[in-house]
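Researcher: I need the complex structure. Ligand is 1,3-dihydroxyacetonephosphate. Inputs:
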Amino acid sequence: MNRQQLSQQIIDTCLEMTRLGLNQGTAGNVSVRFDNGMLITPTGIPYDKLTPDHIVYVTHDGFFEEGKLPSSEWHFHLTCYQTREDVNAVVHNHAINCAAVSILNKPIPAIHYMVAASGATEIPCVPYATFGSHELAEYVKEGMANSKAILLQHHGLIAGEANLEKALWLAHEVEVLADLYLKTMAITPDVPVLDDAEMQKVLGKFKSYGLRVEQ
Ligand code: 13P
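Model: Output:
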């Protein structure tokens, strides 16, 4: 896909993210790996005002085009691509249930087999650091090394996948898991989880399971 097409796909992903109730206003950001760097949403522009010309190219070493300002979170987007070869698209949002679990500073444990969609047995919550900081990108690096989806303490969610549709799919699934976790925690603090042997079995099945959309 060329830059124009990928830029339009980024915008479509942002609009769909809001439509699905995963985000609001100018919160969140979306990127896709491109030409040894990435294409990413600009900072602070409402998604419904975006045109492909607003999307910013950032090189692998963090340079961007004159006259354009990438998302304030460009550091951690770049870090995701540097950390995982299997990730070509990254979605970040402040989805309500994910943000709520992140405020409690808890990982989402193996409460449901779909946790394995992250490629891990639990969805970690990485420590708080100021938005847009190198420190936050360092925490993201550690979290993404183990899981394609992570919670950011007092902030929200990052999901990385092979393409934009899969990244958004994963973000949506994790929001459902966060909702389930909060609902079950409201009934008991000791929420039952699947054991490690079962999760390893499910992780094996996920190598050939998940959203079947290739781009
Ligand atoms: P940007 O508009 O700079 O992408 O910021 C939104 C956000 O969610 C920061 O974490």
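Model: Summary of the prediction. The chain has one domain: 3-208.
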